[in-house]
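Postdoc handover notes: sequence design on the structure in folder B. Input tokens:
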């Protein structure tokens, strides 16, 4: 079982020199994503920061709660249909058992976690600057020191993190209160405490030392998602501090057109928004206009291609990107 002293470490207090502050100098463009401010209904796996297999506390509370905020945002945006088919193919690499699940070791290490824990802003900067990688790509080490040693991070991991940042930008800012739940799940700092009954409202005295994820708020309590055995806890609002929000901006020109054309030679392509279609041939996407459709089918038949080959779907946004980069021609 975790010792009490281990439970008291993980979150260090401080801010980056150039961090954005809501209500002050901030370039964040906010969008209301959760009107009822209930992020608890976006379900993710319960992950515990204590490594029971090797009997050490990772001290990754800041990392776990920050990554869970990003994972909930991505899940909601996907549910809202914000990503293109091409983007979803890439995003699915970052899931485990159908849910977004990122490597805490990658982010916690790049966020300069020490044997005292990590600063919120350093973890947030690591997420913004290096992206994220799948959970199983970089599992927890068998001892604490190796778990936070950057020498184990490979170029393949850095490249995987960059691949995610080709699709989305992840930003953060300090916010004034829990009301920003309408925009994002809110990582926040508390004094660690356990409840006797799940309905207890916690009000622990003492130094702040633990980051959790705010997922629901009422006038009486803020409900948080913790990374120890007791998962959902209720804190009196005045005992929650240092609120941060994450924001995701989707790169709507994230298709690598040259790569798409190369990997889909002789493949039919359908525009899911307009119904336009074409075929990739000779390093170009040839659009089949209505007046040429008959000739196209005759050509396909002559080649014995009717009913054969694959068809991929792309959005109009991606179609226009192909056109903009001069890979689209008429048949």
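Designed sequence:
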């Amino acid at each position: 079982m975790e010792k009490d002293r281990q439970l008291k470490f993980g979150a260090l207090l401080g801010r980056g020199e150039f961090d954005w502050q809501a209500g002050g100098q901030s370039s964040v463009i906010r969008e209301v994503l959760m009107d009822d401010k209930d992020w608890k209904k976006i379900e993710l796996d319960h992950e515990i920061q204590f490594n029971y297999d090797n009997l050490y506390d990772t001290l990754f509370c800041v990392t776990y709660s920050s990554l869970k905020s990003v994972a909930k945002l991505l899940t909601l945006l996907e549910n809202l249909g914000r990503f293109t088919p091409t983007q979803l193919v890439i995003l699915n690499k970052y899931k485990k058992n159908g849910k977004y699940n990122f490597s805490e070791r990658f982010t916690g290490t790049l966020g300069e976690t020490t044997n005292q824990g990590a600063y919120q802003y350093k973890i947030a900067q690591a997420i913004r600057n290096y992206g994220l990688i799948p959970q199983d790509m970089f599992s927890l080490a068998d001892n604490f020191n190796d778990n936070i040693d950057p020498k184990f991070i490979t170029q393949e991991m850095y490249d995987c993190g960059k691949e995610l940042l080709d699709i989305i930008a992840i930003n953060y800012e300090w916010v004034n209160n829990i009301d920003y739940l309408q925009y994002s799940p809110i990582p926040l700092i508390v004094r660690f405490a356990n409840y006797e009954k799940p309905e207890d409202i916690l009000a622990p005295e003492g130094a702040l030392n633990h980051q959790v994820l705010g997922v629901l708020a009422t006038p009486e309590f803020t409900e948080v998602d913790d990374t120890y055995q007791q998962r959902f806890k209720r804190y009196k609002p005045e005992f929650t501090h240092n609120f941060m929000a994450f924001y995701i901006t989707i790169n709507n020109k994230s298709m690598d057109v040259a790569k798409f054309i190369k990997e889909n030679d002789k493949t039919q392509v359908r525009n899911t928004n307009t119904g336009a279609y074409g075929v990739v041939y000779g390093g170009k996407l040839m659009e089949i206009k209505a007046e040429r459709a008959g000739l196209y089918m005759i050509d396909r038949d002559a080649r014995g291609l009717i009913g054969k080959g694959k068809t991929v779907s792309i959005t109009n946004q991606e179609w226009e990107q192909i056109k903009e980069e001069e890979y689209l021609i008429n048949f």
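Context for whoever picks this up: The chain has a mean pLDDT of 91. Don't rerun without checking with the PI first.
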